[in-house]
Amino acid sequence: MPGIIERFRPYLDLPLGVDPITLSEGNTPLISMPRLASDLGAAELHIKFEGSNPTGSFKDRGMTTAITEAVSRGASAVICASTGNTAASAAAYAARAGLRCVVLLPHGGVASGKLAAAYTHGAEVVEVEGSFDQALGLARRLSERAPIGLVNSLNPYRLEGQKTAAFEITEALGGAPDWLALPVGNAGNISAYWMGYRQLADLEGGDLPHFLGVQARGSAPLVEGHVIEHPETVASAIRIGNPARGEQALTAAEESGGRIIAVPDRAILEAQRDLAHEGLWVEPASAAGLAGLRSEVEAGRLNLSGQRVVCVCTGHGLKDPQVPAEPTTLIPPNLQALEDLLKL
Ligand code: AN7
Question: Measured between alpha carbons, how far is 188 from 192 in angstroms, rounded to an integer?
């Protein structure tokens, strides 16, 4: 399968004539969720399941473009700060390209599967005694002084790749959805989606979706209107207090006729469980979009009647398997014990 660069090359602002560094990212499923749609009072709800990208998150779309561009400039090393998914993706694509990769992680703040991925792909993993925002500050400053390319979403080529998810959704639905809900952390992704939809509307006409960007309540700088020094949330991927593309995200939400809101962790975990009970295991941050839709509908601020809704689930649950201990039952290896237990 071709990756997103080959599929969407004419629509991407990328240096010409370089071979893509790709892991066949993109082309992720759009999964219909009729029961959850009806709970929301919506005509249709589809999940864009970005967890089925090669490293388990949407970051791969932006990393194929960022690493390809870095290679085209002759870079030999890249760096990023990360709450985990960017690190895993950068490590994988840098490995593919034969580049040195350094990842800066907030100490103790990264899910186990993401940390393991970064190590396994051969990145140099550095933990910073501080927040993601502080780690990003370091990565940014180093990249300005030393020959090492920054592959966080401050890098415009990241957004070039990530906007292709908007193209795929429009392709699959035959048009833009009415509402698009997604989590917001460093705010690159919502900015990229808006670039994608705007580009399509300019080229082909058609409607633009309204955006519902969702932050976790303890990490909601774009809702509170100021930097959060010590962001807190169970959704570690979006534990970000000073989003690099915050202004752009607010503009995108406003221009789309939508908004950015915050939801409590409890709502995020409920949405994660409900998606899992529909067969889709996403990481906590990825459930924020659904949690946000529910909270707006319940509060009477959003009427989805007759509406086609897409919710972007950004990362796979397998990378963040920290779930509250579910009771399991231990039995001796005999049929009677199993029948007694299951009451069959
Ligand atoms: C699953 O990996 O910032 O608003 O360093 O991993 O574009 O930041 C991850 C962010 C949503 C938020 N869902 O996207 C990182 C990082 C998942 C994520 C987001 C992230 P942005």
Answer: 6
Instruction: Extract the tokens encoding 273.
Output: 């469980």
DSSP per residue, 139-201:
HHHHHHHSS-EE-STTSHHHHHHHTHHHHHHHHHHTS--SEEEEE-SSSHHHHHHHHHHHHHH
Q: Which of 59, 238, 247 to mutate to test the pocket of ligand 1 (most atoms within 8 A of CB)?
A: 238
- pLDDT by residue (tens digit) across 98-148? 999 999 999 999 999 999 999 999 999 999 999 999 999 999 999 999 999
User: How many of the other CB atoms lie within 10 Å of CB of 312?
Assistant: 26
Atom of ligand 1 nearest to the CA of 88: 2
Half-sphere exposure of residue 116: CA atoms within 13 angstroms, side-chain side: 8
Our mutation pick for probing the ligand 1 site, out of 314, 318, 320, counting the most ligand atoms within 8 A of Cβ, is: 314
Q: DSSP states of 276-329 as a string?
A: HTTT--B-GGGGHHHHHHHHHHHTTS---TT-EEEEEE-BBGGG----PPPP--
Q: Which atom of ligand 1 is nearest to the CA of 82?
A: 5
- Residue type, position 262, single letter: A
**Alpha carbons 188 and 228: distance in angstroms, whole number:** 18
Of 241, 266, 63, the closest CA to residue 164 belongs to 63
- What tens digit of pLDDT does each residue of 5-48 get? 999 999 999 988 889 999 999 999 999 999 999 999 999 999 99
Token couple for 91? 């490590």
Partner residues linked to 124 by β-bridges = 102
